[in-house]
Amino acid sequence: MIDTVSQEAPVRQLCELVECARSSYYYQPKVIVEADLRGQIETICLEFPRYGYRRVTAQLHRLGWVMNHKRVLRLMREANLLVEVKQVCRGTTNSQHPWGRYPNLVQDVVIDHPDQVWCADITYIRLLTEYVYLAILMDVFTRAIRGWYLTRQLTDQLSLTALQRALTVHAPPEIHHSDQGVQYASASYTTLLHQACVQISMAAVGCPTQNAYAERLIRTLKEEEVYLHEYATVEEASSRIGRFLDDVYMHKRIHSALGYLTPAEFEAGYHRERLEQ
To answer: N or C: the chain end with fewer CB closer than 10 Å?
Structure first.
């Protein structure tokens, strides 16, 4: 109707007559070519192999694509991109030790600011001919990596070095939470925490869900980096894992719990809001 008479009357008046916004009149819908969308989805899944369809949808939105998650789910299913990775378990926690035990201080705590709670965990990394071990610390509120260390020996020096590195760069947390493994209960480790005026919290023995944030971080690392590569040497493993933690995880990988932001974006936004208040 508008196109028929627009030559005789201004578009603005005609839009007002039929209660149509001028932006709607001029809008030219962008046609999404499915082949292009499929290629973009495959690119995202190649970079972030363990992204589910909702997170892939959020990443597409960040890149300027407009579509709903159902379409993304269909395309991912057709491309066989919804795959579960089988895991092999190797124990790293030895709770049989003479060191002190600490109660769980975070079970009922509302975590609402950075460096309120750090969680810590240890995992193994399989090389071609041996196993090495990784200790890692994460800030629970921002999901930001605070420190990590990789070495061949599963000793208290492993966790201690990761903690020393973290405290060199970041202010100490209010609470440090871990399992009751000997690496976290040792005198050297707990002394360093006490010197930094950090409260010590531990999950109960046999209750991995009480350290769920650290467990989830380890799972993400394994599924999106470790299981996808074969490391020949400790140096290669350290280089690739360091890149994943410090670059991909912190600055590229979006988190649903953070409103589909990266940890770096979320933490920067938090501090920016505090300054504006």
So the answer is: C
Task: Report long-range pairs for 63-67 (Cβ below 8 Å, ≥24 apart).
Answer: 65/32, 65/37, 65/40, 66/30, 66/32, 67/32, 67/37
Cβ atoms within 10 Å of 148's Cβ, excluding its own: 21
Question: Tokens standing for 62?
Answer: 């960040």
pLDDT tens per residue, range 4-52: 444 445 656 666 665 666 555 555 555 566 777 887 888 888 788 778 7
Which residues make beta-bridge pairs with 199?
175
**CA separation for the pair 115, 174 (Å, rounded):** 7
Q: pLDDT tens, 147-188?
A: 999 999 888 899 999 999 999 999 999 999 999 888 899 999
pTM listed for this prediction: 0.69
CA dist 226 and 61 (Å) reads 28
Q: First CA to last CA across the chain, in angstroms? A: 51
Helix (DSSP H) and strand (DSSP E) numbers for the chain? 13, 5
